[in-house]
Design goal:
In chain A, strand 2 (60-61) and strand 3 form a beta hairpin. Chain A has helices at residues 9-27, 35-42, 46-54, 68-79, 94-101, 104-107, 138-144, 156-169, 195-208, and strands at residues 32-33, 60-61, 65-67, 86-90, 111-117, 126-127, 130-134, 149-152, 173-176, 189-192. Chain A has nine helices and ten strands. Chain A has two domains: 2-79, Orthogonal Bundle (Arc Repressor Mutant, subunit A); 85-197, NAD(P)-binding Rossmann-like Domain (Rossmann fold, 3-Layer(aba) Sandwich). Chain A binds a DNA duplex (24 and 24 nucleotides) through helix 3 and strand 2.
Chain lengths: 210, 210
Amino acid sequence: MKDQIIISKATIDRLPLYYRTLRRSQEEGLEIISSEELGHRLGVTPEQIRKDLAAFGQFGKKGVGYFVRELIRNIGEILGLDRKWSFAVVGIGHLGWALVHYRNFKALGFHLAAMFDVNPEKIGQDIGGVIVDPIERIEEIIKERNINIGVIAVPQSQAQAVADRLVGAGVRGIWNFAPCKINVPESVKVVNEDLSVGLSSLSYYLGRML
Amino acid sequence: MKDQIIISKATIDRLPLYYRTLRRSQEEGLEIISSEELGHRLGVTPEQIRKDLAAFGQFGKKGVGYFVRELIRNIGEILGLDRKWSFAVVGIGHLGWALVHYRNFKALGFHLAAMFDVNPEKIGQDIGGVIVDPIERIEEIIKERNINIGVIAVPQSQAQAVADRLVGAGVRGIWNFAPCKINVPESVKVVNEDLSVGLSSLSYYLGRML
DNA sequence: TAGATTGTTAATCGATTAACAATC
DNA sequence: TAGATTGTTAATCGATTAACAATC
């Protein structure tokens, strides 16, 4: 693996799509796939796929294609999906509730290890064997359960405060659903998931298309 | 407005962020803002902001900055937020439930006009004055209520079928939460909101950061 | 007028596409 | 061997950053 080379964000964001499509292809019984075929299933050019993969090594066989099982394993390792990250969801409102029930996370090797809320009605609820804890215990529980990722699903007004506590408790990554910027030390990676961007850009394009 | 020039997707995706930050600045009582200050609040360079805005016209005053109220109106028009788009959510599972309760949509001028599900327990439910209808009535209701945007929140296996019906019923845009590609005619714009991408890329970066 | 800040042009950087040699 | 398909280099395209003239 070429560790020196900086890989583009665009490439990283495509890898999960490759991974998912390969797994689906595997379920269909496919053992070998060409960049042509994979590209067709994904809506990405074959050149793009080969270039993206080449950044990490040589996974294919010339004149043959890629072995599906092997490529799944390789991409999984690149993405770190073999590490079984633990995550905590903070804020069990409508969105948090949807997130803790989202099945694809488990399929990707992520483990829901804790949930937090301020609302006494939510606290104590059991979701798939995990209990909603009061937000006061966030530092304690995150350390205790070795949680790496914090998911922010609280209102905007509390997002920064929650981020600060998550960082203080030692998480290394934050997945932020609050529609605002959050400030964290450089050692912590933030991925923003801003739902209003998608809908607004759709509005933009609809306004232009005849 | 320079209609000829193709505006980059990156620019379009930043406009909603500008819009939101400007509205918040306005709530704080700010009447004039410089690209410097706006950039600081957003985490974007001032040059980037000026370039993005310049693609649509001259909204600022040299030596002064941008009038907040005016710029909000201008960006709102560019994004088409003044058009009061109507949208329908298909699939009132955990995610669909969260979406129909998401308040920011209304604040952006989007109107939830219909909901659909196959589950008899969901059908007939009233959410904020809108009733969940059986999916059989999708064509009829979308036409009747002049719905422009369809939101797909059904399982992957049904996403394409729902997309086909939405397109058949005449929606012009689809906001797809199912983790798969959907095929539509060129005249229909699709925005994919794939939650597993965000989490996977977070996993990637965590694996690399020391 | 002097200071500030935009809008725009030029320079740089990065990502995609095209082409093709290597090789299974 | 002939056909197919990768991996990689070169060419193009697009987006960001830097610089500065215009002007409030």
